[in-house]
Design a protein that fits this description.
2 domains, four-stranded antiparallel beta sheet, four-stranded mixed beta sheet, alpha+beta, 7 helices
C-alpha cells in the first residue's frame, strides 16, 4: 500500500471531527471571546495533526509492536490518577482545593471528548480503516481511555490536606518532609524545598494569585517561609 492510500482514508476519517471542532470554536468565540476560540481551534488542529502522525506510524509497525506500545500508552497516564486518589484517601482531612485554572470552558475537557470520539469511531468503523483489526481496537481503546483521563484530570486539583500537600499530578508532600516554601510571582508558582527526595528537592506548584493568602494561612502553620525566592510579598512567618 502506498502512502497516499494511507493518507486519504485518514483524512476522510478526521474531517468530520475537524468540521465539528471549527463549529465548536466559533460557538465558544461567540460566548466567551475570540481569544478562547483561537486557542481552542489551534489546540484541535494540533491534536488532529498529532493523531494523524501517530496513526501513520502505527500502520508501518507489526501488530505485536503497535499493540504493545498502545497498551502501554493507554495504561501509563492512569498511574498518576491512582496515586492521586490513593494519596487523598490516606492523607487526612481535605482543608483546601486549589484549581489550577479558572477557564469557563476547559480545553482539557474539550480535547478529552475529541480523543474519546476519535477512538470510538476507529473501533466502530473498522471496515473503513487502513489499520488491521488488532491495531484498530488497540488504537481506539487507547484514544478512549486517554480522553477519559483528560476529562478526569481537570477535576483533580492541588490540595492542602491535613498531613501535607497533594499535587494534581498525584505527588504527595508531607509537612514533615517540606523544609521551606516561597513564591515565584512571575509564574504564580508556590516553590517548596523538600528535605528528602529521590530526584529533585525543589518542587513548583501552580497557585493562582487569588488563592495565595489562604494557602499561606495553612503553610505558615507547618512550614518555614523562605523569603529568598520571593519578591513583592511577605506572609506572616511561622516555622513549623
Amino acid at each position: 500500500m502506498h502512502l497516499s492510500e494511507v493518507i486519504t482514508p485518514l483524512l476522510c476519517g478526521i474531517s468530520p471531527f475537524a468540521l465539528g471542532w471549527i463549529l465548536l470554536s466559533l460557538f465558544i468565540g461567540i460566548r466567551t471571546g475570540w481569544e478562547a476560540s483561537v486557542r481552542l481551534f489551534l489546540l484541535g488542529l494540533g491534536l488532529l495533526v498529532t493523531l494523524s502522525a501517530i496513526a501513520a506510524i502505527l500502520y508501518y509497525l507489526p501488530d505485536w509492536a503497535a499493540v504493545s506500545i498502545m497498551v502501554f500508552c493507554a495504561l501509563s497516564p492512569w498511574v498518576s490518577t491512582m496515586r492521586f486518589f490513593i494519596a487523598s484517601r490516606f492523607s487526612g482531612k481535605l482543608l483546601m482545593a486549589i484549581p489550577a485554572k479558572h477557564e469557563k470552558w476547559s480545553l482539557s475537557i474539550m480535547s478529552g471528548m475529541l480523543f474519546a470520539l476519535f477512538g470510538l469511531r476507529t473501533i466502530v468503523f473498522q471496515e473503513n480503516n487502513f489499520l488491521t483489526p488488532a491495531k484498530s481496537w488497540a488504537f481506539g481503546i487507547w484514544m478512549i481511555t486517554f480522553g477519559i483521563f483528560r476529562v478526569i484530570q481537570r477535576i483533580r486539583y492541588t490540595q492542602i490536606r491535613e498531613t501535607g500537600i497533594l499535587s494534581e499530578a498525584g505527588a504527595f508532600y508531607n509537612w514533615q518532609n517540606i523544609e521551606s516554601y516561597g513564591w515565584k510571582f512571575g509564574d504564580d508558582k508556590l516553590s517548596i524545598k523538600l528535605k528528602k527526595a529521590i530526584f529533585n528537592k525543589k518542587v513548583n506548584l501552580k497557585i493562582l494569585s487569588q488563592f495565595r493568602q489562604e494557602v499561606v494561612a495553612h503553610l505558615s502553620q507547618n512550614v518555614k517561609f523562605d523569603g529568598s525566592i520571593t519578591t513583592g510579598y511577605a506572609p506572616n512567618q511561622k516555622a513549623g
